[in-house]
Every structure is written in structure tokens, then in C-alpha cells.
Design brief:
The complex is a heterodimer of chains A (730) and B (160). Chain A has 730 residues and is of the alpha/beta class. Chain A folds into five domains: 169 residues, no CATH class; 127 residues, no CATH class; 154 residues, 3-Layer(aba) Sandwich (Rossmann fold); 98 residues, Beta Barrel (Elongation Factor Tu (Ef-tu), domain 3), CATH 2.40.30.10; 140 residues, Rossmann fold. Helices cover 40% and strands 21% of the residues of chain A. In chain A, the strands form four sheets. Chain A has an eight-stranded antiparallel sheet, with no helix packed on it. In chain A, strands 18-17-21-15-16-20-19 form a seven-stranded antiparallel sheet. In chain A, strands 9, 10, 11, 12, 13 and 14 form a six-stranded parallel sheet that branches. The longest helix of chain A has 38 residues. Chain A starts with a helix and ends with a strand. Chain B is built from two helices and nine strands; from the N terminus they run H-E-E-E-H-E-E-E-E-E-E. The two termini of chain B are 36 Å apart. Chain B is of the alpha+beta class. About 3% of the residues of chain B have low confidence. In chain B, the strands form two sheets. A five-stranded mixed sheet of chain B has the order 4-3-2-6-7, with helices on one face. Chain B has a four-stranded antiparallel sheet with strand order 5-1-9-8, with no helix packed on it. Classes of the chains: A alpha/beta (730), B alpha+beta (160). The interface between A and B is medium-sized, with 18 and 16 residues.
């Protein structure tokens, strides 16, 4: 709950001030670079700060008989004003040890002056100063609330700099750079606020007013230069020395140091008056140093980076906000009709995405599915299934939209028996992995109306593969089938590319399957077994096809279903036409480095294998088992292709089963026939790959399990765990 | 050889010209400001002829021309040419000391000319003659009190 307050504060403050923050940051970067640049100019004399006034002034006086003032700026440049011995006016940087002129005083370019004025007041005078002041003030709180958010996320101040889990670019670097730049940003904000207050006259203004009693008895002889004070004060401590205007007892030295000003008799060197600066003046000076980076290259560069970083914060902050808002819930059925209720506890919207993917599929399957937040829990009169998807936040706490769920559970007992299944989303990078999900699961188990359909299932780090494991369990225990392709649940990446149709075989009454060849976009890396994702409708529905890489092109084998969204879309494509799609890396179904591979397919599942065979230049020992219904024209093409590659020794053997021809043979029959070969293959470290229908996969796995147990004494699951059985079925 | 000769002749001519034009003297003026609060003051230093008209701008303190109009009387004169044919320096804050170096033709001394210091501060009063001193040898070696933002000005001739 407290988390939300910090987050809302952080966001609200940022929203209010973002526009001005952007303007101030852009100009700030320019000014910081200018400050750094200025500091590197060659007007500084090494060791000048150790030179005492009594050492330096006589040297300078010799060359410049009339000196009106000497000032030492933050860069350590010594500026002398006066006249040389020919009466020429001098205003230059000098070497205080040798009186050598080093250069003309820096005059800020009109561009820098313009940027400075804009940075201070946006060209709006007092109004602008006020806006900039308020924005600086808000920036302090943005930085502090950001710090609170990091502490909350890391669960303790001590772990402030510990590892952060990378969810996505904007989120990760917002936090990472936020932690590093916290101090510079805070200093910029505080010093900027202070300077704005000074400029707006909100602080008492201090004017030095020296009260000097004129001592008419003063002996107008001697020189202060030889006095104790001038021997002890070093140039490094001095900001400005105003020289006496004339050799008149009424005229004095005024020496301005860091913290005080002295009026000194020009003859005796006696301090006639001393004024200490109040804290406000010293703070203003410090604020200027910190805010502008004047006189310190390193700090100026840090400030430039911090300003750039603020621009990045604005960008990434809004990216995060938009991302959080993008995952919205859409329900089709009424809550009271809902048979499958999906309850979500999600902090960042990632968990919600998984729930939404399931929700959309259930709706598409005609199920009365309803998706809502855990905090909206109530009585669901027609519910049969309760699916709970929840992440855990902070110290094993509930996400902010789920923190009331446990108490609501006591308040609203369901009236009928309801199956439940809890999915916990989390990251092993944090302790208390899925702790809240465990709590929810335990508490549900104690409810009389609740029946645990599936054991608590956890998903680490948004793993779509682990999520699909749960989908498979769900599919087994209910009549409702959900898609098991991990890529479907993985985060939708951007980056659609144009694909051009190079070739397409025709669909006829006898032949419902077609071969589609696409030109791969240039520079795109892919291989057989990867997936082509197409988006046939406007609603971002995705369809995935296993592909083959043949001669550098993408080849698909597609069966046209009368109402198939994807297959109709692809079938309508004409040769030469382009469309947008993307390739999904499917590393778990690439050809392994094993020496022996058995490929098992049915129907269009042969598609990736055609590519793997074609790409088999290393002559891996490959054997293909494929099952089809009839020997159609396309199958004949496949057979020709296989025969050709057999000759090229890219394929060692292939066996084809036709289920609707005279001999009525299935893939399983081929497998059983080759039992000893396959058992041997598994034993020798070979890999079996299966692609095609889920039904076929189940049947084949059953047979393989038997074979493995009988011949090798090990069940198939053991080989599976070692990655020796790869599947891509649908 | 020829070019060397040319340079030699040119050199003589230039130094002769310099002799005739060098009938000017440099003066330094030290402005001590009152300890007022507010923005730094814009100050113009002008030479006023015996008729009481602006003859020449000697110095302007304040870099931003957009504020020049705050020095109302001088601005009328400035507006004719839009060109400050004089040295410029930074505006001067309350309590500060500023040094102004001006150059005067010796021929105008003791002829009824005056030197006028005009001051203006953002959102505060404008002084058309904060300080005015006669352009005399005596006055240009002394001290004059101000009536506005300037506390006093001390003058001194720069000895070449």
C-alpha cells in the first residue's frame, strides 16, 4: 500500500514537472560542458594557491604600477585590472609569480549567455525563475520518492546497491542509473532550489557595509605588503583584492576571502574592519559550485552526465508508465455468468499478460471466462474454476492489487464446489520466491468449498516454458485445451519485417496442404525449427508456423483449414506479394549437435525437418519417420526431396507411413518396427525430435517410453530431462 | 630594399600622426555604490557639452542592450545612433566598487563641459544625474558624492 503512495508521488511529480525538467536538463548539459571546457583553458598557474600576497603583489606592481584589483576565480585564473608602466589599461589573466600576461578574460559567448538565461528563467523573468525554482524543488522530491521506491524494492537500505532483476530496458536502467545518479541529481535539485530562492529574493539579502574609522594620525609611510597579514594570506584563499585608489589614508585595501572581508590600511597593513559573511552567502557560493560545476572538470562532467540521465529518466519513466497501463482487462461475459474466473495479482503487468493470454484463449474457445484483480474477489455464483495468477512483491508481500485478497477470502465463501489452481510468478533472484502465491494456495486449501485441481505451480522470471508446463497440466486435467507453444506466452517483441512470397503451391480438392517459400529479410539470422509469427487480423492475434531454412529462404508447410485464420491468410498470398511477420527464435527445437538424430513427424510437422536435412552439410546421421494420410502431389514432392538428399548423403534413411492408403500404416508402427535402432540411438547419446500433432506426440512418446524401458531399462522422461527428446507439437 | 624604405616612411608618418592625436588623457574613476538591495545597476557615463546636450558616451556599465532604455535620458541620445562608441563593463551591484577608465581630449578641459553618471536599477528609481562633475583639472583629481545608487566617485589622472 505504501508502495503505491511512493509510486504515485513519484509519477505525479514527474508528470507535473517533466516538460520543464526536460528544458532545464538539455540546457544544463550544455552549461556543464561549457564549465568543464572553461576549466581546461591554460590560464592557471601551477602552485598559484600557495603564493602569499607579499610574494606576489610586489612582482605584479613592478610590471603594473597601478593595480585596481586582482581577483581569483573558481578556475584558479588570476585576473588583474590596472595600468602598465606606459599607462595602457590592463584587464588580463596573469601569472601571479612572474606577472606574465596569460590571456584575455573569458567573455561568455552570446549562445552560452542565452542558454544560461533560459536555464534560469526560461526568458520569463520572475515568472520563469519561479517555475524553475518550483521544478527544482519538485525534483528533490522526485529523487527522494525514487530513492524510497528503490529501498522498498530492495527491501532494506543496506541492499540499496544489490542486484536488480532486469525485466526490460526502461525499467532496468531507470533503477540502475537512478541509484548511481541519486546523489548528483539531489545536489542539482537542492542547489538549484537554493539559487532560485536567492534570485527570487526569498532569502535575506546581505550587503557588506564596512565601518571604517578614519585615523587621521596614520603615518602615511610603509607598505601593507610587508605586513604580517600579507605574508600569511595565500592567493588560493583570496577571491578578490581591491587596491587603494590613491596613496591617501582614506583609501584602503579590501580583501575578500572565502568567508570574510577585510579592510586593511594600505600603509600599516592593520585590519581596520572585518565582516564575516553570513551562512546564506556561503551557502549560495557552495550552491553555485555544486550546481554549475565551475572550477572542477570532474564535477562538471558528472553534472553533464546527470543532466543527460535526467532526460533518460523522463523517457524511461514514461515508457514504464505506458507499459503498465497497456495491459488492460477486457471481459466479454458478466461476472455472474462466469464459469472460469481468473484472478490476478500483478505489480508490473507481467503476470497480467500471462493471465490475459489464457483469458483470450478461453473466450475464443467459447468459455465463460472472467478476468479480474485479486482485490476484486467476491462470490462467483456460477464459477467452476478459480485460476489465480499472482506475483509477490517486496518482503513476500502481496502485489498492491492483491493485498486485500486474503481477508476477502474469509468474507466471501463460494456457494458451490470450485476447483482452484494457483500460479505463482516470481524470480529466484529474490528471496521469498512466490511467497504470496504459497500463502494464497495454503489459505484456499483450507476453504470447504475449494478443491485443488492442480498443485501450486511457479514460474521463474516470466519463463514462458515453465508457464506452458502448467498449461499442459491444465490441458490434461480439464476438457479445455490451451495452446502449449511457449512463444505464444512470451512477451510480444516488436520488429515485424517484410517478407516476400517467392513460391506457393496450389491447394486443390485433393490437396489441402501447400508449400510456401518466402524470401528472408536481409540480415535476419534464423535456422530450421524457428517459428514464423504472422498476424492475420488486426487484433494482434498471432499464429506460429515451424519453418525450414532451404537455400537461405524460409519454407513453410501449411494445411488449409476451412476456418483457419492463419492458413487462409497465407493461402490468399500471391507470388511476389509482401506481408509483415517476424521470426521467433525457437532454440529448443534447433538441430542438436548430436551425431545421431531421429526425426519423427506427421502431416505438416515435416516442415522444419526438410530444412534440417537440407542444412545437414556436416552429415549428421539422420533418419526420418513421417506419417501422412494419402500420397498426394505435395507428398510426392516431399518424397522426391528426401530421395534427392538421400543421394547427397544428407539423410541416411527415411520411412513413410500412409494411414489412408491400402496398408494403413501409422508413424507409431514405423517406430515400433525400428525399436531396437531407436533404443540404441538413445543409448548412444542420439537425439529424437518430434514435430506434428499433439496426439501423435503423445502416442509416439508412449511407444518410445516402452521401447526405452524394455531395451535400456530407463524411462523416456530421463532422456527428456537430458534434452535428448525435443518436441514442437501443436 | 624598397619595401623596407616604405615601412620606414610609414612608421615615421604614423608616429607623427600619433603625436598630434595624443592630446588625450586617461582618467580612472572609482565608483563606490551604496549598499542598496536589488538587481545590479546600469550606469552610463556621458560627456555633456556646455549647451547641456549629450556630446559623447564615455562608458556604459551593463551588457544587455535590452535594458538600455531604463537609462531614459541617455537612451534618447543613444537611440539616434544605436551604437555605443565607448567601452562597456558589467553592471554594478549594491555595495560594490567599480573601476571606470575614461579618456578625455585635453582641449575640452575647463571649457564648461561636464561628465554625467546616470543610473537605473530594474524595478527601482532612475537617476538622470546621479553624479555630475565639471570637466576640470581640479574636479578630475577629486571626489564627488552621489545622489542615487552611487555613494561617491573618486577621480584620478593616470600618469603615463
Amino acid at each position: 500500500m505504501t508502495l503505491s503512495i511512493w509510486r504515485y508521488a513519484h509519477l505525479a511529480l514527474a508528470l507535473i514537472s517533466s516538460l520543464f525538467i526536460v528544458m532545464a536538463s538539455v540546457t544544463g548539459v550544455i552549461l556543464a560542458i561549457d564549465a568543464a571546457q572553461e576549466n581546461t583553458l591554460p590560464f592557471k598557474t601551477a602552485g598559484f594557491d600557495e603564493v602569499t600576497l607579499s610574494q606576489s603583489i610586489p612582482v605584479l606592481k613592478q610590471k603594473f604600477p597601478e593595480i585596481t584589483e586582482i581577483s581569483v576565480d573558481h578556475n584558479g585564473f588570476v585576473n588583474l585590472k590596472g595600468f602598465d608602466d606606459e599607462g595602457n589599461e590592463i584587464d588580463a589573466y596573469v601569472n601571479p609569480k612572474t606577472a606574465q600576461i596569460l590571456g584575455k578574460p573569458i567573455e561568455k559567448s552570446s549562445f552560452i549567455q542565452w542558454v544560461t538565461a533560459f536555464h534560469r528563467s526560461l526568458f520569463l523573468k520572475e515568472t520563469g525563475r519561479l517555475i524553475i525554482g518550483v521544478v527544482s524543488f519538485l525534483l528533490i522530491f522526485i529523487a527522494l520518492s525514487g530513492m524510497a521506491l528503490v529501498i522498498q524494492r530492495q527491501r532494506s537500505v543496506a541492499k540499496f546497491f544489490k542486484k536488480v532483476v532486469k525485466e526490460y530496458f526502461a525499467q532496468y536502467y531507470h533503477i540502475i542509473t537512478g541509484r548511481i545518479m541519486l546523489i548528483p541529481v539531489l545536489l542539482i535539485a537542492i542547489s538549484g532550489t537554493y539559487l532560485s530562492m536567492v534570485h527570487l529574493h526569498l532569502l535575506p539579502e546581505f550587503k557588506v557595509n564596512h565601518q571604517v574609522k578614519i585615523n587621521s594620525n596614520t603615518n602615511a609611510e610603509g607598505s601593507a605588503v610587508n605586513a604580517e597579514l600579507f605574508k600569511s594570506v595565500k592567493l588560493g584563499d583570496v577571491k578578490k583584492i581591491e587596491f587603494p585608489f590613491a596613496e591617501d589614508p582614506e583609501e584602503h585595501y579590501t580583501i575578500k576571502l572565502e568567508e570574510r572581508e577585510l579592510v586593511v590600511d594600505q600603509f600599516s597593513g592593520q585590519v581596520l574592519n572585518e565582516v564575516r559573511y553570513p551562512g546564506t552567502v556561503i551557502l549560495e557560493d557552495l550552491s553555485l559550485d555544486l550546481h554549475t560545476g565551475r572550477g572542477n572538470v570532474v564535477w562538471a562532467i558528472v553534472l553533464a552526465i546527470a543532466s543527460l540521465n535526467i532526460l533518460f529518466f523522463v523517457y524511461s519513466g514514461f515508457a514504464i508508465t505506458l507499459k503498465r497501463r497497456s495491459t488492460k482487462i477486457k471481459n466479454k461475459h458478466g461476472l455472474n455468468d462466469a464459469e472460469i474466473v481468473l484472478l490476478v495479482g500483478s505489480e508490473n503487468g507481467n503476470t497480467l499478460r500471462f493471465a490475459n493470454a489464457v483469458h483470450q484463449q478461453l473466450l475464443a474457445n467459447g468459455q465463460a471466462s472472467y478476468l479480474l484483480q485479486l482485490n476484486q474477489y467476491q462470490v462467483f455464483p456460477k464459477a467452476k474454476h478459480l485460476l489465480i495468477f499472482t506475483s509477490t512483491y517486496g518482503l513476500g508481500d502481496a502485489p498492491s492489487n492483491a493485498d486485500k485478497f486474503l481477508s476477502l477470502l474469509d468474507k466471501y465463501p463460494q456457494q458451490q464446489k470450485v476447483n482452484f489452481s494457483v500460479l505463482g510468478f516470481g524470480s529466484h533472484a529474490y528471496p521469498d520466491f512466490c511467497k504470496f502465491a504459497i500463502e494464497v494456495d495454503d489459505k484456499l486449501a483450507t476453504q470447504t468449498w475449494a478443491n485443488r485441481l492442480l498443485q501450486l505451480h511457479t514460474v521463474d522470471d516470466k519463463s514462458a516454458i515453465q508457464f506452458v508446463d502448467w498449461i499442459k497440466k491444465w490441458n490434461e486435467s480439464t476438457e479445455i485445451d490451451l495452446a502449449t507453444t511457449p512463444a505464444l506466452y512470451a512477451k510480444k517483441p516488436k520488429g515485424l519485417r517484410k517478407m516476400m512470397v517467392l513460391d506457393k503451391s496450389e491447394v486443390t480438392d485433393q490437396e489441402h496442404t501447400f508449400l510456401l517459400t518466402l524470401q528472408a529479410p536481409t540480415g535476419l539470422r534464423f535456422t530450421s525449427g524457428d517459428l514464423l509469427a504472422i498476424y492475420p487480423s488486426d487484433d494482434a492475434k498471432e499464429r506460429l508456423y515451424s519453418i525450414a531454412k532451404i537455400n537461405g529462404n524460409i519454407q513453410l508447410v501449411v494445411k488449409l483449414h476451412p476456418n483457419g485464420l492463419g492458413s487462409n491468410y497465407l493461402n490468399d498470398l500471391k507470388i511476389g506479394q509482401t506481408f509483415k511477420a517476424r521470426l521467433v527464435n525457437n532454440a529448443s527445437f534447433h538441430l542438436p549437435k548430436s551425431k545421431k538424430v531421429a526425426l519423427i513427424a506427421n502431416g505438416t510437422g515435416i516442415a522444419p525437418f526438410l530444412g534440417m536435412i537440407s542444412q545437414n552439410t556436416k552429415h549428421t546421421e539422420m533418419k526420418l519417420y513421417a506419417g501422412f494420410r494419402n500420397e498426394t502431389s505435395l507428398i510426392k514432392k516431399h518424397l522426391e526431396f528426401l530421395a534427392h538428399h538421400l543421394k547427397q548423403q544428407k539423410l541416411n534413411d527415411f520411412q513413410i507411413a500412409f494411414s489412408r492408403e491400402q496398408n494403413q500404416c501409422y508413424v507409431m508402427d514405423l517406430i515400433k518396427r525400428d525399436a531396437s535402432f531407436l533404443a540404441g540411438l538413445l543409448k548412444q547419446g542420439g537425439v529424437i525430435m518430434i514435430c506434428g500433432s499433439l496426439q501423435m506426440q503423445q502416442d509416439v512418446e508412449k511407444v518410445l517410453d516402452q521401447i526405452s524401458l524394455e531395451n535400456n531399462g530407463i524411462n523416456l522422461a530421463a532422456y527428456k530431462a537430458k534434452g535428448r527428446l525435443l518436441t514442437d507439437c501443436y | 630594399m624598397k619595401s623596407l624604405l616604405k615601412i620606414f616612411v610609414l612608421g615615421i608618418l604614423l608616429s607623427a600622426a600619433n603625436q598630434t592625436l595624443a592630446q588625450t588623457s586617461k582618467y580612472k574613476c572609482m565608483l563606490q555604490m551604496n549598499g542598496y538591495t536589488g538587481e545590479p545597476a546600469y550606469i552610463s557615463v556621458s560627456l555633456i557639452n556646455p549647451k547641456g546636450d549629450y556630446e559623447k558616451t564615455l562608458y556604459v556599465m551593463g551588457k544587455d542592450k535590452k535594458w538600455y532604455n531604463s537609462l531614459k535620458e541617455w537612451f534618447k541620445f543613444f537611440n539616434k545612433t544605436k551604437n555605443v562608441n565607448a567601452k562597456t563593463g558589467a553592471s554594478v551591484a549594491g555595495g560594490d566598487r567599480a573601476m571606470v577608465n575614461i579618456e578625455l581630449n585635453d582641449a575640452i578641459l575647463d571649457k564648461g563641459y561636464k561628465i554625467r553618471f546616470e543610473t537605473a536599477v530594474e524595478d527601482q528609481k532612475y537617476y538622470a544625474t546621479d553624479v555630475e562633475v565639471p570637466a576640470t583639472t581640479e574636479a578630475l583629481a577629486g571626489k564627488a558624492d552621489g545622489s542615487g545608487y552611487i555613494k561617491y566617485i573618486r577621480f584620478s589622472k593616470v600618469q603615463p
